[in-house]
């Protein structure tokens, strides 16, 4: 390849050299031209070795006029071009990410699931980590149902499938077959001189035996170990000795605060425990009836060993010791006096969480659980009292989301999760009954937000199949927040508690509210107006039925 020193600093191939007018004019002579004769070629010697090709430095006064001029750019211009391309790429990526978050891009959503498979036999041998596998992709993409009109169609479909059908209450013998050990431990009669359900149980251990050595609450949680260390120290001091035998006082709760989560149950619990005649379990929420007795700590973590009923009863030993002291002090007094101390338990999952039934009870009817938590509680305590604290289900769901979501919380993210959950719920009610969907573990774990917890009337009607209405007190958080003194008086009257002094009442009613929204969650602001409108439509028929059952239009939540 030959090069011209008269054309430009860029090396030109030989086939272009003939078109160079500087070298080839009308008087050009190949013999006299030093370039054509092959002179003025300078060999390069990198590393003291002669190269196999030749190059020359060429000087040019004008610019390249061909497409190869692109390669004539200086280094600075090339760097500028590369920098500009990088900036454009970053801008495009930023736009795509922002557009996807706000629903501006028409791209498929990776979070969408389609129709729900209602056959419980599908889950007999599956692992808990595979629970979402029953939901197959649907034709309708979640990106297209975020707008209100499309989601309204989903809600209309759900509403058209709502039927409040009374469930059949199981027989006592059927319950005994399911939980024989529980029935062998808890008697069917309690001490007549105690307002709280208690009984004496023979203790067969000796002084060297640790009564709490196998308690699962102590084994799996460090924060309970301090409580059980204290109970070990005082255990023998509270045994009742009769005819060379040792007896311990066992107690169940007199009342249960059964729900709902994020509805003020913690605040009610903190105020009630200040009453001199009220005691609670060693921990606020044992979740024994709904989870621990099945060996569930978290469903996503699988199953552990089942917590026996003895472990649950151990949680009331502190209160039982105080009740026993009262009973012993009254032993020599007149008959007719009784212990007035009552015990409460405040697991907010008791009202609604029956998710574990599918793994233990296989004789279901059309995907509905054959046994519910209330069936067993009523079997042992037909006179138990139940307190339910509710709030506007729309606001409850947003509070629930802010409390339990771990990252990337925002009003927009909440909206997306609501849309996805509604679509999953619709897929279920198209194939199954309302009760089957509400109590279905697979669906409830697939939904990104817990829509089902706000379907208060579904759970309440099922509790009313076994308990009388006068055994259930239903409160609203909105009323509790605006007039706490009034709601606490309602609770005192419901539990038949004695009068309080002004100082005691002030301590209970004027204490700061418990478990309020965290500052970082408050900074996120309210939910989007569109989300609120969607949820209002979804919960409206359930609230209407709830107001009818309770004969109180306040449970319509029209003004919130």
UniProtKB/TrEMBL annotation:
SUPFAM superfamilies: P-loop containing nucleoside triphosphate hydrolases. The keyword Nucleotide-binding does not apply. InterPro entries: CS_Sulfotransferase, P-loop_NTPase, Sulfotransferase_dom. Residues 253-517 form the Sulfotransferase domain. One of its GO terms (biological process) is hexose biosynthetic process. Gene3D superfamilies: P-loop containing nucleotide triphosphate hydrolases. Signal peptide: none annotated. The chain crosses the membrane at residues 78-97. Keywords: Membrane, Transferase, Transmembrane, Transmembrane helix. Its EC number is 2.8.2.-. One of its GO terms (molecular function) is N-acetylgalactosamine 4-sulfate 6-O-sulfotransferase activity. Belongs to the sulfotransferase 1 family. PANTHER family: CARBOHYDRATE SULFOTRANSFERASE 15 (PTHR15723). This is Sulfotransferase. The gene is Chst15.
